[in-house]
Structures are given as structure tokens and as C-alpha cells.
Amino acid sequence: MKDTYRRNINYLRISVTDLCNLRCKYCMPETGVEKISHCDVLSVEEIIRIAKESASLGIEKVRITGGEPLIRNGIIDLVKGISAIEGIKDVAMTTNGLLLKKYGKDLKEAGLNRVNISIDSLDPDKYRRITRGGEVIQVLEGIEEALKLGLKPIKLNTVIVGGENEEDIPKLMNLTKIYPIDVRFIELMPIGRASNWSKEHFISNEEVRSLVPELIPQSHEIGSPAQYYKLPEGKGRVGFIDPISSHFCSECNRLRVTFDGKLKPCLHSSQEIDLLPALREKKGSLKELLAEAVSSKPEKHHLDNVDYQGITRNMSQIGG
Fold first, then answer.
1. In angstroms, rounded to a whole number, what is the distance separating the alpha carbons of residues 164 and 127?
2. Tens digits of per-residue pLDDT, 264-286?
3. How far is Cα 116 from Cα 69, in angstroms, rounded to an integer?
4. Are residues 59 and 10 in contact, defined by beta-carbon separation less than 8 angstroms?
């Protein structure tokens, strides 16, 4: 599928829940999200149907996100259903890794190809503080399990939050000297709860890169939001995702579906297309709504505008 700016839209990110077993400071309130009725959440069958219709239009890659997708009932059946769809070449997941050791083998057998794992610190106390109670040892065990199972390439995602985890940058980078993985640093984005943090806690990736002059630039991958580098003798890569200081909109190839059935052409826009009437009431065509999202996808976001108003949904409600 080509949008009006000739970008090839072949990647669908689907949030399967807004719930999470962590309470990261920049992501959601300490009390968690307000629970909604079960009937307001997409069912496993509805998610598979969305993926199937999307594949018929040219979607080739599906990423399952949350909240934390591994706490969603039926997650193994969901992965199995999506991986069986004709035209889907890659099924990935973004997870905090806490349950990856438990479910990794079943996920691999169901058809999951690879994982992105969120980890904002290697220090147990600091990780516990940022996540409000998480145990980083469980994440490290999940990474080891993913390596053992071949869920690769494995990408670790770290959100840099000023005053919280800047000192962890070198230690996280050094993981690429030990493991053949990518460690990626993501600029704090003004989304939902993080909108209140963005100015006070924002650190640009340009500042981070300047602290490590030995990084060796790597060839850019078309369609990837990250710019990659390597440490000398590194087995893996160090990546930087700069949605604020250097956006990658010209290569954006994705659509997003929220856990409650809203289709988002752009992460940083409040525009949402409601899929539920087409899914449940046969009002309109699901395929036409997907095509509409592609044609209405904006050329770029406006995060760098001084008058930009961040979207109100938390990232856990959209899909990280």
C-alpha cells in the first residue's frame, strides 16, 4: 500500500491491552489505568480479523504491543492466529520481558519471530524506582531466554529520562559487547502522562551520542526509525531513535491499532478511525477503513512546533 506521499505502508502495530504489570513513571499513573468493560476491548478473533484484512491490502509485518501483551489472556492463540495469515512475513512483540522466560517457548512455537524488550536501567534499585516495583533480574532472564530460543534480532529499548537513568547509558551500551543484540535509546516523547515530563526531563540523543565519541556509524536501514552505530569490537549495535530532535516521518511505514479498536495513521496525531462499527455491526467495510487510514496518513508529525499539544492518551493505551 502506498500513501499519498509514496511511502510503502506494510507494517501494523496492534495493542492488545492497556494493562501492564509495571507502572513506569513516564508511562502511566502509579495506580494504573482506569479499567474499562471487557466488551470495549478487541477480542482475539477481532484482532486476527484486522490483521487478515490488513494483509490483503499489503501489510507484511505485525507487531503485538500493549500495555504489556504477555498479560493478555489468549496471547499464545493470538500469535498463532496472526502468524498463520497468508502474506504476514514477520510477527514481532514489544514486551517488558518480565514474563518472557515463562512464555518464550510457547510464543516461539506459535510463530513469534522476534522481540523488543523495554529496559531503562540495569541497576536493580533504579529499575525498581523507575518501574515502581519491577525486578530487573526477571528482564535479564527473559533476554537470556529469547537468545536461547532464537527470537532475534533482539532489540532492547531504553527511554532516556533526565534525572533518572542518564548514568546507565554506558552500561547499557556495553551489553552490545557481550551479546549480539541492539540496544536502542529513545527520546522521551510528549505523549499522555509524559507530556508533563517532556521539557523538564528531555535529553536529546544528540547529547547522548556526544558522550561516546568511539561509536562507529553503520549503514541506515530503510524503514527503521533508528540510526545505528557500533562500539569497537561490539557484537551488537547501538541505536538512537530521535522522534523529537530528528524525526523519521519520511520513511514511516506503519499504522497502529489500539486495544479498544481505534486505528491511528500517526502516533503523534489525535486522529483515530473507529473500527468497532465495521467489526461488530457490519457498518461499513473494515478494508475500506484501513485504506482510508493509509490515504489520510499525514506527511509528518509536529512535535517540534512550539505550540504542539501532546495527545492525551498514554503510550500504554496506544501501543509502545
1. 10
2. 999 888 889 999 999 999 899 99
3. 12
4. yes
Q: How far apart are CA 307 and CA 177, in angstroms?
A: 42
Handedness of CA 223, 208, 63, 113 (dihedral sign): positive
- Give the separation between CA 86 and CA 56, rounded to whole angstroms: 8
Residue range 11-318 in CATH 3.20.20.70: yes
Q: Distance between terminal CA atoms of the chain?
A: 23
SS3 at position 2: strand
DSSP bridge partners of 206? none
| Cβ-Cβ contacts under 8 Å for 317 (sequence gap 6 or more) | 15, 18, 33, 67, 192, 258, 259, 260
Q: Tell me the pTM.
A: 0.93
Greatest distance between any 2 Cα atoms in the chain: 58
DSSP letters spanning 222-245: TT-SEEEEE-TT-SSEEEEE-TTT
- How many beta carbons lie within 10 A of that of residue 73, not counting itself? 11
**In the chain, which residues have pLDDT < 70?**
190, 192-199, 244-246, 302-312, 314-317, 319-320
Residue 110: what residue type?
A: A
8 A C-beta contact, residue 204 and residue 188: no
Distance of CA 105 to the CA centre of its chain: 21
Task: Describe the strand order of the beta sheet including 262-264 as a list of residue ranges.
Answer: 216-217, 226-230, 237-241, 182-187, 155-160, 114-118, 90-95, 61-65, 11-15, 254-257, 262-264, 273-274
